Protein 1
Amino acid sequence: MLTLTCPYCGVSGEETEFHAGGEAHLKRFISGSTDAEFDEYMFLRENPKGVHFERWRHVYGCGKWFHAARDTNTLEVFGTYSAQVSEPPKEIKDKISAKRPGWSWRNFK
Amino acid sequence: MSKAVSALAGAKASGLVAIEERGLQGMITLRGDFASAAFKKAVKAVLGVDVPGQRAVAVQGEKAVAWMSPDELLVMVPHGEADAIVDALSEALKAEHHLAVNVSDARAVFRLSGMDALVREVIAKVAPVDMAGFGPGQIRRTRISQVAGAFWQPEAGVLDLVCFRSVAQYVFDLLKVSAMDGSEVGHLG
């Protein structure tokens, strides 16, 4: 089971208090995009064994959305951060690099 | 106008701790920008307390203000005064982007009282919260078994819990089972 810390209310809660919201940092391609771009945005998702970035919502608590970086293999949570960013902040990346040298996820590393 | 009644009309039960539905309680949802000076001033002027810090509850006589999220407060007032206080808040916050709504009749409130360790234990059985680190002055919004709820301790040995009115019977029955005689765990000293 995951233990996540909500960056908005500071609660360290277990997984059942939150709700997973799918892959993080997706860029939307809708009208005006090519079929290939739309296809990738709509249907193609990462499925890594290891470092992964997700959106979560503190659904039974403050109700806010946030981002979480975790390892899908060990369930280790590297950190959680604000929802209002389009890529992981540096301190989260550094934390992951310290524990999983050479990691990469989509175009982040 | 029809007469207001609470969800379970003051139902009571006892076991490890006493459980009581508290009857009518005025509650107001107040949302706005906590960083704004005008918001802070309005809360202080109308409710007599400062905007509480993260997950804190501020009590002032019959009124209490609880931190629900970074932009939401739960204001507790006597039931009959709720509408007047909503009006006062709306007036004081006229120039601010905000929301003040009387939600009194959408909620149910329960009070658990008894030995402090047992009060916290009854909650620890039904909510994923470390009750060893919980005490007066804090509020925690969380999951009460299968439904959303929030609780705080006005003082040691007393715990107030709010949930939606539609699940009041469920929560009452759940607390009753959690507080059944002979079911103490004794983990919380």
Protein 2
Amino acid sequence: MENLKANPKTSTTDTDIFDARLQRRAFLQYAGASAAVVAMVAAGCKKDRSPIVSTGTTLDFKNDIGVLNYAYALEQLEAAFYIKVASAPPASFTQAQKNYFQDVQYHEIAHREFFKKVLGTAAIGNLEVDFSSINFNDGASVLAAAKTFEDLGVAAYNGVGVRLTTDAYLVAAGQIVSVEARHAAWVRDQISNGSFADLSSLTSLGANVSGGLDAALTPDKVLTAASKYIKTKINIINL
Amino acid sequence: MNILNILDEIEKVDGEIYERINPRRKAMKDFFQIGKKISLAAMPLALGSLFNKAYGQSTPTAVNEVLNFALTLEYLEYHFYNHALVAAPGLIPAGAPTAAITTIRDHEKAHVDLLKGALGTAARTPLDYANFDFTAGGTFNAVYSDYPTFLKVATAFEDTGVRAYKGQAPVLKGNAVLTTALQIHSVEARHASHIRQMLAANGAAGLKPWISLGTGGVSNDTGIAAVDPVYARENTTLQAGVEITAINGTAVTKAAAAESFDEFLTKAEVVTIANLFLKTGFKL
């Protein structure tokens, strides 16, 4: 790794390594030749680029890795919440509600682990959550929190999708956000049947009633809204 | 796969291949990231993405095509619900069911108007109720006389809508239009979630708000064979080369893995479904 760091030609920093035709060609062939080597170089470069932050975690939105880590952070939060609910549901929950909270728990775990696996060594660490504002014995409190998480999740994916540059990630994000929207609609119907797509209640999250458009928020706004549930300090750069 | 050979071969017929890629330096960076993050099994997809950028498939024309395609689907949904509300008295029970269908109808109308406005003169010819056959050639003869049948078709439409938008997302990549499309897409998903619950309460006991595995692991969880094409591949558990079942040693079952990701439909698949409901002369 030290050797790689010392050689700017193997770096993906913003120095213009792609400018000369020959170098581009060489790079392409090199990139295709061995994914393993590419991964090594990328890992090395990642260390070069990431600012050292003594506390908390940093989401660097300059590329897809930052976006994926952002999604990973939100899925960590959701998964932690549903694991807690599913392990000890409020007494007022019906069997159907218990079953579906169990389902949602596994969906969020699947999302969390998907991002963790895709990110590999580039993944941020485990977030420390703060659910002190939620009364897990109270059905209404749990449903209200679930609604907040799901609507915010929808807003987050909708708002950040445009930053993704890789088709595979964009498609994956699209495949996840609709499941979050299905959750959101179901949870809302548990609170008040018929509120599944009440866009007028989502305008603060970026929804537009006349256009029939759902919530969409930029990452900074989403993280501000989520901050009371996350103890770990999250720094945002290159947004 | 040997990308080295592929690029060499292309260079023989297109000496500009590297130049084409060059202006999109970001494409190169993306490609680098893909090599880093996606398993080799997923590399053909990644390569396709690189070439899309090089050859500029995401032109404004392509964007308009996607928007017109979406507009067709929104016309279909709008007329389907609107006819039920205005021309099939007694079909939908008063109260919550009528309120829900009205909410959905209004959203579909908003989507039609929004897309028409965005397309301007490039918008497709408007579609009227008379241009559709919501019985799908007699498959759903009772669509406007039998409430459960109406809900079955509605479920198929909403789940199709969700999957159709998803499939077109890469064409809109990096474009502000993508955000709007995503905002429509998740509204359709909310509709789908609610309609599936309405269907569950009217004969399809146990149907979940999210698309689960069908009986015996088939992709269609509704049990309505006529709508099998709507659910093609929904039993998929492999995402971007990552197997979701039991991922990282978790207790995620095959069913949960299938539920946790909605699949996309290709444009051709959506066209086949939509054409079932469009009369001759108006088919896509």
